[in-house]
Amino acid sequence: MPAPDPLSAGAQAFLAMLAAERGAAANTLAAYTRDLAAAEALIGPLAGADRAGVERLAQHWASLAPSSLARRCSALRQCFGFLVDEQWRADDPSPALPRPRSRRPLPRILSHAEVEALFATAEAEAAADRPEAVRLLTLLELLYGSGLRATELVSLPLAAVPRDAPFLTITGKGGQQRLVPVSTRARQALSRWLAVRGDKGRLLFPSTGQSGHLTRVRLFQLLRALAGRAGIDPEKVSPHVLRHAFATHLLEGGADLRVLQTLLGHADIATTQIYTHVDSARLVELVNARHPLAQRRRAG
User: Fold this and answer.
1) Residue 240 is among the residues annotated as catalytic for this protein
2) Which of the residues 63, 155, 223, 295 has the least number of beta carbons within 10 Å of its own beta carbon?
C-alpha cells in the first residue's frame, strides 16, 4: 500500500498554482512544501483548519527564529487566500497567525583588498592553464563581475555565453530572463575556460553528478578553499558574499539603484535597497553635492 501524501489536496493545488501561474522556482516550491507540511502535521488539512487550530500554531512554533516563523506564516497566509479564492473553504483564518518582526540581516561585505587578494591567488594558480584553476578563475570573475546567483552560475548552458554581444542570458528565479553584462576580464576568462574545457555537453561547467553540472555545494567549497590560500578567513567567503560585493562596490562607484536591481534580478526594489547601508557616507555626500538646494547655497 503506498504511503499517504504528506500534503492535503488543497495544499497541493496551491503549490501547483504557484508553479504554473507564478513560475515559482524549485527552491521556493520546496520551502513552501516544507512549511505547509509542518502546519498540516499539527492542525490537519488547511482547507478544514479552524481559527483555534491556527492559533495553536503560534504556540508550537514559539521557539522558531523570527525569520523562519515569518516565512511559515507568509506561506500559510498565501495558501489560505488561495483556498478561499478557489472555494476550498469559506473563511480565511490567517488573521490568527502571529506577525513576527523579522529584520533582514545586513549582507556580509568583502573589502576591495580582500577581493583583490582572491583574484591575485586565482590568477596565479590559473597561469599554467590547469583546467581546474582556469575554471575557478572563471567562476570568480562571473560571481564578482556579473553578480550571478550561485544556482544561476553553476547551471549556465553554453548557449548563454556571449559570442558578439558582451552579455550573458540568465534565467533567474521564477524563470525570469535578464541580460547581464560581462566584463572584458570575464570574457577573457571564459575564453580560456572554453579552450581547456573540451567537448563535454551543453553546460558551461559540466560535472559527472546527477545534475550534470557543478553543484552549489562544490562551488561553495572551492571558494572557501581559495580564500584560505589567499590569506582570508574562509568563513567570510561564499558565492552569495561575492554577489553582495558586486552590488556593494557598484553602488560605491555611483551605480543607480534601479540599474542594480535589474542586474541582480530582484523583483522588488526593496530587496536591492539593503545595499544602501554599506556606503551611507557616500550617499549623504551625494545628496549634499547634487541636491538643487545645496547647489543654490553654493551659488549664493
Assistant:
1) yes
2) 63
Which of 72, 197, 213, 243 does the annotation list as catalytic?
243
20-29 pLDDT, tens digit each: 877 777 888 8
Using alpha carbons, select from 64, 74, 70, 5 the residue that is nearest to residue 40: 5
| Average pLDDT over every residue of 167-172 | 75
Q: Please indicate, yes or no, whether the overall pTM of this predicted structure exceeds 0.85.
A: no
What are the tens digits of pLDDT across the range 18-67?
888 777 778 888 889 999 999 999 999 999 999 899 988 888 888 888 87
Catalytic residue among 89, 218, 266, 282: 266
Catalytic residue list contains 275: yes
Q: Is 243 a catalytic residue?
A: yes
Backbone angles phi, psi at 242, to 5 degrees: -70, -35
CA separation for the pair 239, 143 (Å, rounded): 7
Among 89, 173, 185, 236, the one annotated catalytic: 173
Which position among 71, 72, 149, 213 bears the catalytic label? Answer: 149
Q: Which three cell numbers stand for residue 47?
A: 482547507
C-alpha pair distances (Å), 7 with each of 12, 37, 58, 132, 277: 6, 6, 20, 43, 41
Catalytic site residue 22?
no
Judge whether 266 counts as a catalytic residue.
Answer: yes
